[in-house]
């Protein structure tokens, strides 16, 4: 799977700053594109986001909910962070991470495009 090519599609979203494919178990990035503003570390942001993903999945398990995370949104003062697990049956624990400029991004359109790209990334 050519993760970089699919992530490059995400960079066509208005306001997109960076994107990554992340292993939620380890927090390591498998592929990245773009960069964070102000010298931020994309790999570090992805690792931190994997903690959020693991925590949410733990809550679902604790509550015994027969459900899965479709996507998550973290709203910051200047950015949106979108997180979307790869939907597959192999239990890989991979997710797509998308960083958007809040002033330029259309959140609804970004979620739709992320969903489309994620469906192509599912392995």
TrEMBL record:
Domain of life: Bacteria
Annotated protein name in UniProt: Roadblock/LC7 domain-containing protein
Organism of this sequence: Novosphingobium organovorum
